[in-house]
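Anyone opening a protein record will find just a pair of labelled lines. With that in mind, the following record should read easily:
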Amino acid sequence: MSFPSIIMIDPSQEAAELARFALWRAGLHCDFRACSDLSAARRCLLQGRRQADGIVPSLILLESEMECGEGLELLRELRASKHLCCAPVVVFPSYETEGEREALAAGATEYLPKPVDGEHYARCVVEMVERWCDLSEAAAPLAEGVMAEALADLPGHPQRRREDGQPRGRRSH
């Protein structure tokens, strides 16, 4: 099973978590990775340029105003990469600036300032993924066992209890 690969390059952890939550809430299964700085983004994306098995992301969401505006420099590097030159990159700046022309000239597929409202932001992320990704597998129900396998290595969390004190999901006899 191959889920769409979404890479979000944004220094805001809150923006990345809201995007991840929006995709989950929409029922879209994606391989979502967030890079909070340009060096992490370069490692994540450009490492495949040196390795033949580099996977091309289905969508890259790029905050252009990172680290003194160097987000567009990363975009130019991505466009110069043989395996990333055609990956859709949406420049997704935090502030509506006059950077659309520069972003498109640097190779952006689309330029879309982030909505300020959280609900509108979440809807915008889902719409971008729906527009740019093949969702044939992303919207399909997960096969039994896939979620258990994915969660197997995660530490446990306290279960919420029903009003009768029993953990949810268990029936009292």
